[in-house]
Design a protein that fits this description.
about 800 residues; single chain; globular; two-stranded antiparallel ribbon; mainly alpha; 39 helices
Length: about 800
């Protein structure tokens, strides 16, 4: 056995006197492993050098801990001060709500995601992005990244982009204090995407299994073993387990212990927990938090991780990048606003809120749902196959009911122009702008610039799918089909046009008024800008316009001297190093809020309110997701378009003006979309004179508030055969389930005609029999099914 000098022991004891037992054991492992790596030194001299290097690293770590601690205190004081002053409540520090639209964790995460995506995709040509997103060249890209020579210039460019991305990402994690230097592996690749359903079933839906043929009947243990044996082929076992008790003091791997750890990882993934193992963890208060969070798996290379993802993950290489970028942005954004341990900050700020203005249990219940949503907590399904079934059901019924939704949504332009009016933009100007560029038509240099700067907002998958249904749990096949569907029926381009339209108009309007000080702006624009920027920040940024637009370019073009000069005039609530990120987040939030008000995509508020904090895969979770199918859009419309529009109109005159302009802008578009919808079904417009009072009330609502009429169930004039209460609580997916369940009962009761009718109704929620433009009337005629007619309606064709 090697002899260690007394000096080495004394030095080690002096450095380690405050270490816990676990930390001492890990320290010993680190020393042995480091000493073993020296080729020029052996025995005591190797141990001596290893201990000195490790002690130096620990000293650096202590200094880093002190810096992180100081930043945490600064963030706490800023957030606590906002609550104490009454400017914000606890919930407004989490997500955009009330007056606070940019100084919150959610806004920071969205801004960081934008930065990351722009860093990688910003200078790629459209054909290069298509080369990557298609998934056809993933093997070339991963092999080039791993050092293989392949004659494929575009794949080579993307591989180099990914190498730069890993460096950029790691730097952002460290600079934000989300992770420490020693917590990041130098060769850290993507965050692994684990498909719970595939892992639970050992990917038996695929043609090729990890170790055995598809036809083998698996037990639960067999599923776990298949996954474990498969992943072991693609990870570096020594590097993966070197910080675990599967590695002994001599650096030898215990395969049996490693298998036990992988079994735990399997269990954690399949019940929705993290697969990250921590080496040491102390969670006291905000002034004393020491945390280790290492990425567990060390892959043999990018191709190895990609091969794992093909079998047990989701999507292609581009999806792997986007998932990693989103996870990184969430981690960095949370650290920027709430320090390196947001969970500790949650408890500290909660105490401040209760001290200043106590909130009740229900308020905190919803706030905790906000927090979990923002932090990405509890989003994984507890029972993947169960939630997968219901998610697919919701997505299928969504597509069956919405083939004509883009035309039905034209009236959205009315409330979008109303939102623009709240910024001081003329209603008619906004209305004409959105009509002119409907379906993202007539792009120009300015609009292309906005689309490039706000790529994550403009190209958001949730823009055209999430507004109708929660799609995250849907199977790969259904997700691909639905994506294609929403592109073919033009809803994707409709939403994209609305987002770019309002963002472009806002950027142009602000730039047109950038020669004025804040106090000289018209009241509406002053109030809008004041939600994001103070007078000094406005003066700093308003002179940096490009292409006649006020955008995030205004922040990017600030020089270090300008930032330092500005910082000297502030209260210094944040470090100088964070000023540029702070300004970027605020300007980016202007565009985020504008885009979300144009499309009404679901936010933390709608998810918390309608899902009650329930988890996918649970009976309550799937029940609420199914019942509230389509309801998020209606709730967002009520909250953002109606309530906030009314609240932000000062005085009775402004409120009347707001309501009148919104109605005048909505009614002609609503009548037009109703006409085209009826025409697509082979029907004429209904006759107002032939309606009774309830029918007139119902029809009038479809013209005045189509966003409510289409999505609120009982208010939908086309939903004719449901009782009021059931319709209000119901959804396309509940109708599909109900009709399917009651058909066998009717058959058992000896009523085959009614059973057939129920099955035909169910089919309408799987196939667009009743909703396919131009074709449905002929399908109904062939089936002998009469279309429901409103008073005075007649058939143009079909029946």
């Amino acid at each position: 056995m090697a002899k260690v000098s007394k000096e080495c022991i004394d030095e080690a004891l002096a450095a380690l006197r405050n270490f816990s037992r676990d930390e001492l054991e890990q320290y010993a492992k680190d020393v042995f492993r480091r000493a073993k790596s020296f080729n020029d030194l052996k025995n005591a001299r190797a141990y001596d050098r290893a201990m000195k290097e490790i002690n130096d690293e620990h000293a650096k770590s202590y200094f880093e801990d002190a810096t992180i601690k100081a930043n945490n205190v600064m963030k706490y004081e800023k957030n606590a001060g906002a609550i104490k002053s009454g400017n914000k409540n606890f919930r407004q520090l989490l997500a955009a709500e009330g007056k606070n639209l940019s100084d919150n964790v959610s806004a920071a995460q969205k801004a960081e995601f934008e930065k990351i995506v722009r860093q990688v995709l910003g200078d790629l040509m459209p054909e290069e992005v298509e080369h990557w997103t298609s998934g056809q060249f993933d093997e070339n890209i991963t092999d080039i990244h791993d050092g293989k020579t392949i004659d494929d210039p575009i794949s080579k460019k993307i591989a180099e982009k990914l190498k730069d991305y890993f460096i950029f990402r790691n730097a952002r994690l460290v600079l934000s204090n989300a992770m420490k230097f020693d917590e990041i592996n130098e060769d850290r690749l993507f965050r692994a995407i684990h498909d719970q359903t595939k892992i639970i079933t050992a990917a038996k839906n695929l043609k090729k299994l990890a170790t055995e043929p598809v036809t083998k009947k698996y037990t639960a243990e067999g599923h776990r073993n298949a996954w474990r044996n498969f992943i072991k082929k693609f990870i570096n076992m020594d590097e993966t387990f070197k910080h675990t008790d599967a590695m002994d003091l001599e650096g030898n791997l215990d395969e049996g212990r490693a298998d036990e750890i992988l079994n735990r990882v399997f269990n954690n993934i399949t019940i929705g927990k993290s697969n990250i193992f921590t080496r040491s963890q102390v969670a006291n208060d905000r002034e004393a938090v020491q945390r280790k969070s290492r990425m567990f798996f060390k892959w043999e290379g990018m191709r190895a991780q990609y091969e794992y993802n093909k079998t047990f993950g989701r999507g292609n290489l581009f999806n792997m990048f986007m998932s990693d970028a989103k996870a990184t942005a969430n981690k960095v954004g949370a650290a920027q606003m709430w320090g390196d341990n947001p969970y500790s900050m949650f408890n500290d700020l909660r105490a401040v809120q209760q001290e200043i203005k106590p909130k009740g249990a229900l308020w905190w219940d919803y706030t905790e749902a906000y927090f979990k949503d923002v932090m990405g907590q509890d989003k994984a399904s507890i029972a993947p196959k169960f939630s997968n079934f219901f998610a697919n059901l919701r997505m299928i019924s969504t597509m069956a009911r919405l083939p004509f939704i883009a035309i039905d949504s034209i009236s959205d332009i009315g409330y979008i122009a109303s939102f623009a009016q709240r910024m001081g933009i003329s209603y008619s100007r906004a209305w004409l702008n959105q009509i002119t560029h409907i379906f993202d038509t007539f792009p120009n240099e300015e609009r292309r610039r906005i689309a490039k700067l706000m790529k994550t907002q403009v190209d958001s998958h949730l823009g055209y799918m999430g507004r109708w249904s929660d799609n995250n749990s849907a199977s790969d096949l259904i997700a691909k089909i639905s994506t294609k569907f929403f592109k073919l029926n033009r809803l994707e381009s409709f939403d994209r046009g609305n987002r770019i339209g309002i963002m472009h108009l806002m950027a142009k309007h602000i730039a047109e008024n950038s020669d004025k000080k804040m106090a000289d702006l018209n009241p509406q624009l002053q109030r809008w800008i004041g939600k994001f920027l103070d007078d000094k920040e406005w003066d700093l940024l308003r002179k940096k316009n490009k292409l006649g637009l006020f955008t995030t370019d205004n922040v990017d073009d600030l020089t270090n001297d300008e930032i330092k000069e500005h910082y000297a005039t502030t209260s210094k609530e944040i470090p100088l190093s964070e000023v540029k990120d702070d300004l970027y987040r605020k300007v980016h939030s202007m565009f985020t809020i504008a885009g979300e008000n144009a499309v009404l995509s679901p936010s933390e508020f709608e998810r918390a309110f309608l899902w009650h904090g329930t988890r996918a895969g649970t009976i309550p979770g799937e029940f609420w997701r199914t019942v509230t199918h389509f309801k998020m859009y209606a709730l967002a419309y009520i909250d953002r378009a109606l309530v906030k529009g009314f609240q932000e109109s000062d005085g009775a005159t402004q409120k009347i003006k707001w309501a009148a302009s919104m109605l005048m802008g909505t009614i002609p578009l609503s009548i037009l979309s109703t006409y085209f919808h009826n025409l697509s079904q082979g029907l004429s417009m209904p006759d107002w004179d032939q309606m009774n009072i309830p029918e007139r009330s119902k029809y009038l609502l479809t013209i005045l508030a189509p966003s409510l009429a289409i999505f609120a169930g009982v208010l939908d004039p086309r939903n004719q055969n449901s009782s009021g209460v059931f319709s209000l609580l119901g959804s396309p997916s509940t109708s599909l389930i109900g009709n399917t369940m009651f058909a066998p009962i009717s058959l058992f009761e000896g009523n085959p005609k009614h059973a057939g009718k129920l099955l035909a109704n169910a089919a309408n929620y799987i196939f667009p029999i009743q909703t396919l433009p131009g074709i449905s009337p002929f399908i109904r005629e062939a089936l002998g099914d009469e279309a429901h007619l409103e008073p005075g309606q007649t058939h143009y064709f079909g029946q």
